[in-house]
Structure formats: C-alpha cells, structure tokens
Amino acid sequence: MKKMTGLKQGMLYLICAAVIISSPSTVSAGNGQTAVEDTGEQPPSLRKEIQKLKNGNWVNLTTQQKLEDLDILYQTLKDNYPYFHVLKRMRNVDLEEKYRTARKEISRGGTDIAFYQQLDAFINTNDQIGHLMLDNPYWYEDSASSYKSLAKDYPEMERMQKFSAAYNNDKSVENYGKMKAITDPAYNKVMAYYDAAETAQDTGTGSAADNVRTHIDNVQTRIIEEGRIAYIKIDSLLPSNVYGEDKKQLFDFYGTVKDYDNVIFDFTDNGGGSMNYFNDLIVSPNIDTTLKCNAYKLIKTGENNGIFLDFNDYRPISEFPGLPLMNQDDLSDMDLFHEIEYTTEPLGKEKMLKGKLWLLVSDTVFSSSEYAAMFSKATGFMTLVGTRTGGEGIGSDPLPIILPNSGLIVQYAAEYGALPDGSGSQEYGTMPDILSPEGESALDTCLRVIGQNH
C-alpha cells in the first residue's frame, strides 16, 4: 500500500476558473446531466468568445500538420487516458466518433484559430471528465508559470521538473504567446464584463453582480449564532505556495470560535485546487489523532504516462482485488494499479476547533474538493450535508500532451480513482451523510438538523 502525505499528496491539481473555461451559469447537475441556471442574463465565457473568432493565424499550420497533431492526440489518449467508457456512460460521448468528425472538419482546411476551435470541440465539450481539457493561452500561462515556480521551490522532485519542462517547452511558449494576439480581444471582452460586475458589486449596484462569484475573498466567515454556530465558506483550495493569507484568516477565526458547538465549512461553490489546502488548513489543525483513508488508482501503461509516472510504483492489474462495484469495462482497459493510503497528521496536541464540524457539498465539488468530501466521509472528520458531489477526488496533477506541430497542450487525468468498494470516484462522487431535499439549500438543511439536535 502506498501512503501519500504532505506535498506528494496533491501538488497543484490545477483546476480552471469558470471565467476562463465556461459560463458560470452552466453547472454540472451530476450523474451525466448538465443544468443551466435560470439567471436571466447569460454571463460571457472565454471559451464561447474564442469559438466566435473567425480569422487568425499565428503558426500558419498546414492541413497535414493539423491532422498529424490530431492523430497524435487521439492515439495518445487511447494509450493513456482511462475514462473512455466513463465518458460514454456519463456524457454519451464517443471519443472515437468525435475524432473521426474532427478529422473530416480539419481536412477541409482553415486557419489556426479554426484548428484550435475544432480541437476544443473535440476535447472541451466533455465537461472535464478525467480533467480532459485543451489549454487556452491564459490557462496555459498560469500552468507554465506555476509549474516553473514549483520546480524551483522543490528541485529534488523529479516529477515537478518534468512538469515544468513540459509546460515551458520552447514551441508551446512561443506559439501560445503568438496566439494571444488573436484571442486577446475575446479575453478582454470577458474580463471587462467581470470587472464591471465586480465594480457594481463593490458599490452595491447592478444586477449583473448577482450572477458573478469573485475570488478576491476566497474565504468568507461569519457567526450565525453567537457562541454556538460559526460558518466558513471557501471558494477554492489554493496551492500551498500562495495560501498564506487564507491560513492566517482561518486560524484567526478558529481561535475566535474554538468553543462553538458547530462549525460549518461550505464547499458548495468549490471546484478544487490543491489537496494540501484541505489537509494543512482544515484537517491537521482540527484533529488530535492521525486520520487515514484508502483508495485505488488504476492506469494504462502508455508512453505519455511513463514520462511522468513510475510504473514500478504499481502492481499488475491481474492482482487487482475483486471489488463489488468495480466496472468491468473500465477495468478491462487498465494495466496497473496501486492501493493508496491518504494520511493526515495532527498539527498539534489539541484541536483548534472543539465542536462538531460540518461540510456543505454540491455537484460543483470536484477534484481536490471532492477529495475533501471523500476523506471527510470515510474518516468521519466532518458530517457531509447537501447533494452528491461532482467526483474525481482520487489522483494527482493532470498530465500534459504536447502536440508537436502546434505546440498546443491537452491535459488529462492519468489515474482512474476507485473507492474501496470499486465505485469510480469520477462517476459517482460522494453521497452526503445528510441529503438536502429538493429546493432546500445545503446550509438550510444543516441548520435545520442542528436545530433538531439542540
């Protein structure tokens, strides 16, 4: 069994902000469905704005070069990406069929921006099942910069050096930089919308602000009932190299409400980030014994996976135990696995918070925030309230596929996460301990239960 503690447990687990990838009015409804909130005005998204662009070349790729990039991308996914069957079940998406469609469209020729849009239609319509995503220039820049910084901070970690080298390869740096000249108008349009909404929110005017969730204040705290109920809302799990301000804010608040009977953590808008945030700032300060949670990671032995993963850390799939809820189609695609033990140690001898801890969850909970939900339920650290989560909380940083001609990068999760019963973390997420009735918010459910138990 492989233990995962501290930094190795989840270096970054970078997740894109809604403003960069998709409209914040579009949310996953769980179990393969997508819901669109009836918010009236539809806020713009960068993805949609880039899809509207008509003209633009920054590399002047030939049709043959584009087809070669597409072919390499699809073959690399076939050899390395573990979620082909899950995509079919959850989204009714057949990647092979989409690949054939994309190849026909690309064969007709077109501009570089048209090629990007065609790849985006092939990849990003999959709602990030298994973190499958085509990097736009702005997400790419953030990723390249973050990995370069982490590689500098942790020179002894070979895997971080590989991530930094991959994201900062000369072709991607140059070509994504050139691409921005084409996409900046779309980016500026979206940013102008959110800047205006933020200004309206600050001044208390403008209905647009009601539909926008900003991340200036990543942590919001308040007292619901003096001496008895405290509330902490966290919108994103920031990486450890930048979570310092959140740490101070949280620990100061812990000191204020240390003797409260109930402390509610709200993750209903939290789409993930770094597993370390949850472990370091929420779990460790509030336990007095070591907590452990077991799971499984399954992988394919493709060449791209081999660049970043050490196959010696895994066992042959023939030795995988017969778990009752393991999907056999998924299992048939895998080559190796290992059992993982997530472990978190107490920060001190005493808990900072003495009362009962609650975690509010929704289908927005994904990736590292899904890990938080899974870990909390499995260990009994917090009681979960709300609706089924969005899934995929078992794994590590998505791996990059670098397309040789365009320099574009597609990321994917290499590890298929399974719970001890075999159920897939991506597909099933975590069912809360207390399910909110339809029409009742997770917070209202939690307060109602607390009131009943008082």
Automatic annotation (TrEMBL):
Which keywords are on file for this protein? Signal
Q: Which InterPro entries match?
A: ClpP/crotonase-like_dom_sf, Tail-specific_protease
Which top-level group of life is the source organism from?
A: Bacteria
| Cleaved signal peptide residues | 1-29
The Tail specific protease domain is annotated at: 228-434
Name recorded for this polypeptide: S41 family peptidase
Classification lineage: Bacteria, Bacillati, Bacillota, Clostridia, Lachnospirales
